Automatic annotation (TrEMBL):
GO biological process, alphabetically ordered: phenylacetate catabolic process
One GO term describing the cellular component: cytosol
Protein name: Ring-1,2-phenylacetyl-CoA epoxidase subunit PaaA
Any one GO MF annotation of this record: phenylacetyl-CoA 1,2-epoxidase activity
UniProtKB keywords: Oxidoreductase
InterPro entries: Aromatic_CoA_ox/epox, Ferritin-like, Ferritin-like_SF, PaaA, PaaA_PaaC
Species: Neomicrococcus lactis
PANTHER family on file: 1,2-PHENYLACETYL-COA EPOXIDASE, SUBUNIT A, PHENYLACETIC ACID DEGRADATION PROTEIN PAA
Gene3D superfamilies, alphabetized: 1.20.1260.10
Annotated Pfam families: PaaA_PaaC (PF05138)
Amino acid sequence: EDLAGQANFDRIISEDSRIEPRDWMPAAYRKSLTRQVSQHAHSEIIGMQPEANWITRAPSLKRKAILMAKVQDEAGHGLYLYSAAETLGTRRDELNNQLLEGRAKYSSIFNYPARTWADMGAIGWLVDGAAIANQVPLCRASYGPYGRAMVRICKEESFHQRQGWEILYELSNGTPEQKKMAQDAVNRMYAPALQMFGPPDSDSPHSQQSMKWNVKRFSNDELRQRFVDMIVVQAEALGLTLPDPDLKWNEERGHYDYGQLDWEEFSSVIAGNGPCNTQRMQRRRTAHEEGAWVREAAAAYAAKTAAAAAA
Ligand code: ACO
């Protein structure tokens, strides 16, 4: 126990200021942040797959270039986040092993298939939209390296959301078949996107403590509500509908009411039984094995340069 360290930590949190890697922090804070930041990094890396599947099938050279840039951005987000997580004291290869061995979670959403080109639109609009709603408040997270990484990530995510919106807008204003394809993608992605915000507050073990530590600024349900309120108007502008018969403006609350989500399906997806969990993990393991030579070459080069610098 470090009384002076604890007092300093408490003061920084109460002043809504920032904890930096060299500051003393409670073991539980370090552990919970390592968990959240590394899960977030894993999500970015696994999240490359559903869209990477469509790069070769994008309908034009321009669309291909945009999609490729977007998938690369996600790799970049994963890298900043692994770097932020490492400053908490766990090495990146250990974090990576946790993912490869199935000991770490990644976002439920990436276990759903991307069936048509319109899914690239729905993923951009809804999935990246939900990511922004969840992550903008994280720019103010009390842990410095995490908050700073989020600033750049959020800027890139807003570009991603706009490109998704634009794909859907074009399809929605295209032929009847294209419009149908756009609607079908939204129908499939809507509920899983709402579940990205995590379980209901009554069932969220980490929320309260994370909010006391100024890591989370809003609860899962608060952010989900904010997102629903935002996308109802956007769906109207797109000329598409959201697949929820209970969606309705509530004058008294000043928010849209929405229907119950299927939390059993959510648990089952997180437990590894979603439609694409096996495929996503197999692909990640193969990619990791295939990249072994790059890691070996980089390590050999680093050792050689270090030896030359020491000589
Ligand atoms: N998918 C998978 N697991 C989830 C999800 C989800 N959508 N939501 C919650 N969980 C997990 C939590 O990680 C936690 O698991 P653990 O105890 O094994 O670590 C458990 O369910 C309980 O949830 P909470 O107590 O609500 O957890 P927490 O307070 O960490 O809140 C949240 C979850 C909102 C996802 C939070 O961690 C967060 O904001 N993370 C950063 C954002 C992020 O990771 N986004 C990834 C998708 S966006 C993208 O990659 C483009």
